[in-house]
Amino acid sequence: MNKPIYIIGTGLSHNGSAVLLKDGQICVAIEKERLSRIKHDGGNDTLAIQYCLDAEGIELKDVSLVVQCENFNIPERNQFKGKRIFSGTETPEIINISHHLAHAYSAVGTAPFSECHVMVIDGCGSPLDQFLHLHPEQKDSIDPEFLQENQMQCEKESFYHFDGQKLQPLYKDFSTMATFDKASLSLPTTEHSIGGFYASVSGYVFGDMDDVGKLMGLAPYGETGIYDFDAFEFKSESLYVKDSWREHFTNPSEGYDYFKENFSYYANVARWAQEQVEKAVLQCFSYRIKAFPHQNVCYSGGVALNAVANAKLIDQAIVENLYIEPAAADNGLALGCAFFGWLDYLGKPKMNSDGSTCFGKMYQREEIVKALESIQVREYVQKEFDTEEALLEYCAAKLFDGKTLGWFHSSSEFGPRALGRRSILAHPGIENLKDHINRNIKFREDFRPFAPAVLKDKVGDYFEKGRNSPYMILVDKTKPEYLEELKNVTHKDGSARVQTIDESWNPRFAKLVNAFYNLSGVAVLLNTSLNRKGMPMVETPEDALQLFQESALDVLVLENIILEKLP
């Protein structure tokens, strides 16, 4: 029997992560923030890599290759923002790849295509000099104008072709770095990136740039057409951010109270910014696909998490077959590093993926029991079920009665969306339940929407497009006749960021929604991540118990063990 080939991919940017491939397939993957409990944590990768090794039951000596990527640095073997797990070792070999190449390989490694193009759009990739140092053979693909620039430039958009084995650049666009000044709305990344623009407006509206996705959630509360100027322009099919838009916005948020007092104003700004991003993304795709036609396109980079723009790419038939990498932001860099090692560096064949994005370790009953022993169980009703059927019937009945469930099951999700492994679940139509979850469980802004998780074969019953959306990164419209029944998962404008449940890799969650459907006649549940504002998604039983104690969650499901708060 041949010894398996293990490859570690490690991303050391913000939103750091580690991935372990076994013979070309993901066996473990984890985001560092889930372990450190620090939102968007990155830098030193020892914690995340050790988690992967422990989960697989191997040691560093069993690993054949390490591929790494940061953003502006090439991390040293022994030290990077602290001592690394490789310190004092000579094996395994460590190689480096550029930022956008890592994003691109993260998409092709998990995509259903054997051949495709790949679009990468984000806030800021690798500096040009670093890119050329890592990939000197690609110098001919760079516009000479960039090579003559004296200022620091970084990747802003990349378009590749994947031939089934390797990626080749078709188009590379760079931009000089901006001198960041929050007060003047200058971009926190490159001067001309879509991701940087979105982060800048997010800072203007909310006072921070950490959760730019909130801007997409606020936009439906604004009115279209309030502002009649553009933020972007294209010169020779390359995107640029105009300077003139900034002069129109001179009232930055001074905190949440100020934001609430001026809610309509900031909602209108968010609506304008969201529409600008949608136009820019669609135009970038249109230009690249016109120049390099292909029916299959993958999409990665932080901008690929904009579910509204993504849906428009499909609705307007700009792309025939689109695969969006679920971990499209920098948490997915480690995936791309690992797949580069397998496909490009080792020249091994691409392996099929079952579509799952859940790669965390499994927590055994003994670990859950040990965690329960650390809390005052007498404050709760505790039950353990012998059969899955009895467990699901109990949970479905609680959801039908309007209770909120913390749902902890199997391997955790890799990426920003809870897909039924670390979720808060609730009835999609009971009055005031959405506001209760935002206020008393998530402790976040009341305008933030929740997603509907729907049985895959029922999605067309409730939503207008009825498309497959297993990763919650496409929006749809709730059908008018279901707006009341689905009011907790339908946004202000009638949109919904749908998750279609794939029973092949999410069987227990599919069975739970089916059990709820049998009781309620509705094949949809409210699904949001098992965390609160400022907290990374729950990873361990201990994390789940902490949230249960700190919030107004009614029921916590830890595999087959249930805790319920006393009335």
Largest sheet: 8 strands, mixed
DSSP summary: helix tally: 17
Total beta-strand segments:
22
Strand share of the residues?
15-25%
Give me the secondary-structure topology:
Elements: E1 6-11, E2 17-22, E3 25-31, H1 32-36, H2 46-56, E4 63-69, E5 93-96, H3 99-110, E6 116-121, H4 128-134, H5 144-147, E7 153-162, E8 167-176, H6 194-206, H7 213-218, E9 232-235, E10 238-241, H8 256-261, H9 263-291, E11 296-300, H10 307-315, E12 321-324, H11 333-345, H12 365-372, E13 380-384, H13 388-400, E14 405-408, E15 422-426, H14 433-440, E16 451-455, H15 459-462, E17 475-477, E18 495-497, E19 499-501, H16 507-520, E20 524-529, H17 541-550, E21 555-558, E22 561-565
Parallel strand pairs: 1-4, 4-5, 6-11, 11-12, 14-21, 16-19
Antiparallel strand pairs: 1-2, 2-3, 6-7, 7-8, 9-10, 13-22, 14-15, 15-20, 16-20, 17-18, 21-22
What's the short version?
With 567 residues, this protein is an alpha/beta fold.
Please give a structural write-up.
Helices cover 30% and strands 20% of the residues. With 567 residues, the protein is an alpha/beta fold. Strands 13-22-21-14-15-20-16-19 form an eight-stranded mixed sheet, sandwiched between helices. Strand 11, helix 10 and strand 12 form a beta-alpha-beta unit. The mean pLDDT is 95.
